[in-house]
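REQUEST FORM: STRUCTURE PREDICTION
Request ID: SP-0412
Submitted by: Lab K.M.
Chain count: 1
Length (residues): 440
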Amino acid sequence: MKRGFLNGSKVKKNPLYEPPPANDTAKEAIHDQKAPQATLDDGKLPYGKVENRGERAISSKHRLNFEGSWSAGAPKDYEVSKVAYTEIDPTMFATNPDQVVVTTIPRTYLDKPFDPDGHSVWIVLGPTKAKVVGRPGYLKGLPKPSGPPAYEVKTVPNMGMGIFATRDIAVGELVFAERPLLVAPLDLSPMAGKSAIKLRDKYTPDEFKQILMLECEKHLDFALAVMPPENRQAYLALANDHKEDGSGPLLGILRTNGYMIKNLFDGPNVDEWQSNVYTGITNVGSRINHSCKPNIAHKFDLDSFGFSFIAKRDIPSGEQLCYSYCPVEQSAADRKADLARYGFACTCPSCANPTPESDKLRTECRPKILAAAVAVSRGVANKAVFEALVDLKKQMVEEGLEATDSYHKLLKIIFTVCVMLGMTDEKSTYLKEMKKYGLY
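STATUS: Completed
RESULT:
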């Protein structure tokens, strides 16, 4: 699986559209439009080749038994900072807002997990750990899929490893759940405040980004040192598409495979850049490959500290489970540009043979749905509106977009129109489909 980490504002964010006039639905579009855009000097980490400024290696009493040197672009005169890590009893937590804790969820003894659901190594600020560990529902077990196992992991030509359905999977079905191998801050580097300002003044923007990656590698080196051997092996076996941009081997894996955890964040709220959220690496889930016609989604549950992977449409036996690494509601050219950082070209039909019709549908479906939601909320509903929305629904299904939030919103709008027009049979049909998607 290949997925981005710290790669800029477009990753796992909605594309920007002109918002319709105000109401609750329109406010969502307005919020999207205010999302800050990345610039060359905003700390966004690079991808591609960088100048080799010499071999570097992290030196630590926790050094693991693998190659610790890589071609880093950090300046030769820069020395890795000496941050004091605090590894404390996982049942306890620190209150210092600046204290970095490397801990395990749940508690382990002698590197042997006693919990049948496994455990995670977590790089976290003390107060954030307290926020999770102190939850009334913490720590519950992972949800269990119903029925026989539904997937298998196997090699995919030109994709490395992938996950395939071993039986028919219904939309909304839990395919599997797992605790992540590692959870870390999206902004992993300890560089902040005056120290960061001094470094920015001394070095070029590119050199500063390489320094950040060097510092990130140091964090990850310590985290993997306290990881159980089987989890460490699973982490190191994951794909790394960041071997030439100055990333260390551990950071490269994290950047390639990280799932953003939007409901786990430092402080009282998620900031507008989403820089205070966390990212997670999983054993099975991190092998899910990309498609612009996704069929699976994930969510992170704080109480079980685990990921659940859920079918977003009916998946027939033998089909590969796929997740989109970029916003799918954009043109083929824009998707290709977004995916360039992962080192592969998408071969789904909409990318392999893009058409003006496909691009038009993908770029216009979301603003059309938002506009329709505003109109319907104002009482605009007639047979022509219903037919236009049904036609849009048909086009989205043919394009493979029924796993998107926009499609789910469209179903709700069509159902509302049916209620407003007294279309009893149609209302029953769309209510049934909404229940199928867990929307009612």
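NOTES: The chain has three domains: 7-140+179-287, 143-178+289-323, 324-440.
Reviewed by: T.R.
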